[in-house]
Design a protein that fits this description.
Shape: elongated
Number of helices: 3
Oligomer: single chain
Number of strands: 14
Structural class: alpha+beta
Distance between the termini: 20 Å
Helix content: 10-25%
Order of helices and strands: EEEEHHEEEEHEEEEEE
Strand order of the largest sheet: 1-8-11-10-9-12
């Protein structure tokens, strides 16, 4: 019976060699430039020239607010400028003939400057009826607007994200932070490369570089936020995506054993070692 109860196990020898492992950190992807597009004037939305998710160029017209009222203000201001010019010319002629004092001519000149300033302001308000893209980017979801909507001043229209290069934020434990700072202090270079694993478990083809570290640690988690930068030439990455940062870690003369020869009890992992007596 004693022989029948014995079991035969396959054994192997551990390997010892240098290798690179990846520390994994959950991350959030953010655009370097991500802004809200808002109306600067009140009026009816006359035209919507883009759609959600569309790529636009800097200066491209996105929305048109009906400009009628603002065009009328410009025309009114132009007329006042012309009238003030005529008044000034007449007063300067009367000053030359000693009919009125130079002070009255100076007041006419001041009035002309005032109406010129009002004209420039009216042109500025008219310009605000055309809402253009301040940089190349990707149009986000539209706000609560439709063609013909009455827009209020400062009403949210949509968002615009520059997706050429993105920032990826991830939280790092204090020990990893200290190792990183020690690596830099010993001349390990100003930047360190990391990889990005996407939600479909595929590795993003472009490498990222660690650029900056947040100023302080979180009191609750004991972690500190790192920021890596990734180029996005094919527009695969979008603002708000998630994934994992893979931070390579070099291990010298690591002892490697097959994973299936180990077992776990609670938070510890064990392995059986065969002694000289078998």
């Amino acid at each position: 019976d004693e022989e029948a109860s014995q079991t035969t196990y396959q054994v192997s020898k551990p390997l010892v060699q240098d290798l690179t492992l990846n520390d994994e950190y959950v991350c959030q992807i953010r655009a370097i430039q991500h802004i809200e597009i808002r109306s600067l004037e009140k009026g009816y939305l006359e035209n919507v020239l883009v759609d959600e998710g569309q790529t636009v160029k800097k200066g491209q017209l996105l929305f048109q607010i009906k400009p009628s009222v603002y065009q009328a203000d410009v025309q009114k201001s132009e007329a006042e400028v012309e009238l003030s010019k005529i008044e000034l010319e007449n007063n300067q002629a009367l000053v030359d003939k000693d009919i009125i004092s130079p002070t009255e001519a100076a007041m006419s000149a001041a009035k002309l400057n005032k109406v010129k300033a009002e004209l420039e302001l009216a042109k500025t308000h008219l310009g605000f009826t055309e809402i253009r893209a301040p940089f190349d980017g990707l149009i986000g979801r539209f706000g609560d607007i439709r063609l013909g909507s009455l827009l209020e001043e400062n009403q949210l229209l949509t968002t615009l994200s520059d997706t050429h290069r993105l920032w990826v934020y991830f939280n790092v434990p204090e020990a990893q932070y200290l190792d990183y700072m020690e690596h830099k202090r010993q001349g390990g270079g100003g930047t360190q490369s990391v990889k990005l694993e996407l939600a479909n478990n595929k590795i993003y083809p472009e490498p990222g570089t660690i650029e900056t570290i947040q100023s302080d640690f979180s009191n609750t988690s004991g972690n500190i936020a790192f920021r890596a930068s990734f180029s996005n030439p094919h527009a695969l990455l979008r603002y708000g995506q998630t994934g994992k940062i893979l931070w390579p870690k070099d291990i010298k003369q690591a002892v490697m054993v097959p994973q299936k020869s180990t077992f776990e009890i609670l938070d510890k992992r064990f392995i059986y070692v065969v002694d000289k007596n078998g």
